[in-house]
Request: fold
Amino acid sequence: MKNKITVNTQSSIRIGSEKIIYFDPFKISSAANDADIIFITHEHYDHFSPEDIEKVQKSDTIFVAPKSMEAALKKHGYSNLTLLAPGEKTAVQDIPVEAIPAYNLMKPFHMKKNGWLGYVITVEGQRIYVAGDTDATPEAQAVSCDIALIPIGGTFTMNPGKAATFINELRPKTVIPTHYGTIVGSADDGEAFRKLVQPEIEVVIKLN
Reply:
């Protein structure tokens, strides 16, 4: 499954399985217009980019997003919406989806009251956790997953050290670091993170 996951700038993620799934499309270089499902974690410009959504969206694309983003989505004319509150579970095109709260503990950038999200989806029998912009919150620490994609760039989210501590406690089989090397964080953060993660957890560097 990990080989079917690609990571573009920031937390722009594509999963190319039976369904083509995008999370927070951003800085998309070419218009594939192949998305069966687009997940949006929150409203910041590097996660909710209508310009890039246009490059991956097709006529029947389903959007999954926080309920708190309903007005923003409808303002841009998006329909076929599945809107979730933190803690809710559903299925989208037969893919199980869990909405995990995503927020900062001590920073003002991602407030819990905003209702922003990470997601756990089950694809090909693998539970994949796309964390969104979050710290190591109690809800994040309670996630059970096989593959975790988590932010490590610091400033707005966890830095490599805090992210590694979180992953060493979460204990997925595989972790893919995101959200570093461009807007925040250094291109070297992925390797710094890898060195701090326990050796039995596979670290896969995907960020372009």
Observations:
- The radius of gyration is 15 Å.
- The longest helix spans residues 160-170.
- The chain has a mean pLDDT of 92.
